[in-house]
# Entry
Amino acid sequence: MRVSAAAIAFTLALVAGCATEGPRPGPNIVVILADDFGVGDIQAHYPENKIATPYLDRLVAEGISFTDAHSPSAVCTPTRYGLLTGRYSWRTRLQEWVLAAYEPPLIDKDRPTLPSALREHGYTTALVGKWHLGWEWPGPQESRMTDVRNGQKTLEWHLDQPVQNGPTTRGFDSYFGVDLPNMPPFSFIENDTVVPLPTERYVHDPGDGVVLPRGFVGSPIAPGWSFRRIVPALTERAVQAVHDLAAGDRPFFLLYSMTSPHEPISPSEAFREKSGIAPIADFVMETDWSAGQVIQAVDDAGIADNTIVMFTADNGHSHYTGWDELVAAGHMPSGEFRGHKGDIWEGGHRVPLLVRWPGRIEAGVASDQLVSLTDLFATCMELVGQGLPSDAAEDSVSFLHAALGHVSTEARTSLVSHSNHGEFAYRDGPWKLVFRNASANLEESRGQATVPELYNLDADPSETTNVLHEHPDVVTALREKFDGIIDRGASRQDINGRNDTAVSYVQTQVVRWTPPAH
# Structure
């Protein structure tokens, strides 16, 4: 990747300015990733919406808002993969849904990640919160990929032993969090240790929230575990991490991977019924508060001027956790866009992206630069004055130029989106070519031809009118470009890669885990 002259000059000035403080290769980087937080859920962006978000409203006022930002998938595991690797997750064998309980790592052990690349350039790296990218769980059998969703939930696992090949083997110096809040084991994990030990069995308690994980009744749970305490506990650890890392002599990268407002919808006592709308609205308010505490910690630690803070989300707002109640109250979680979490439509993968860097990024502005969360890898590398690895980050393009108010000839102009059921969409400029499954029922669609549809997002951002037959030349050109991105194994122009499996958008996959490429 070529780095613009303006960015090089900017980085050299930054390093020189920090010379008296010791060797700091770049600014601290704090990324806050909300879980199932819709593009319409920040009130400053949609003043007519009904959920108060004062902390994120302040971040909007203090930084730049990217209005055309996208998660690479409409669900969480593949988005997290893309964010950390700079590579689309559909290039792996996982072609739909997310990692199930007790499945193995999705990130190959030898693949460079954003934290591992930053660590090579002097950064301390930390992760607090949700992982959901797989572990080697200890037990009489190995963790394995299963086509049956959560097919390993009733197997025996030795959770008193170290859990192998998690975050601390994928670039993070430290980790504290949960694999995910609605799957076992119901306990925290610190580095590679489950703490406290989940020595009891989960019993459904309707007083602990709504959309609770009833399918995992009987699974291991820590004594006294409450879903309502997860967000406060993770917030406390993330705030402490900011202060601890700020006290060090090296720059740091902190990923606060939130568990909210993903189910279980279990707002803590301080937020129960606070919205006056529904539990999911309360939980969005708690998510706003939690992100705000981490941002405030950056300010309180006295490092704001040398810290870039980003807030975004892993996909759109969930449709099964109280969507109808929000809409009835006048709150539109996807704004003007069609769809929600899981969808190939814009509401499934268009997400908020806020970036603050006092004195470096203009406050209170917006950019319509097209961004994918796979781009965090390239952006952070450019922040520290480094190029991308030649064997990684195949789908990452820096958006630093746009954040700094510059124009670049190398800006992203296209992206690939992926749905919960494995549907694809290819975006190029205003055009979005969708390949939806033949039926809303995934099982009925398996092996069937997909149905192409074309939308012009400039003229029709809500995707109401399919114009496929009016623009056959556009469809042909888009398919040629999309085929090239698949066949080359990369969308970066300067490298070629290799997919882990055969990738097809013309028919729905037959199995969840497709065979490895030969």
About this structure: The two ends are 29 Å apart (CA to CA). Residues 279-300 form the longest helix (22 residues).
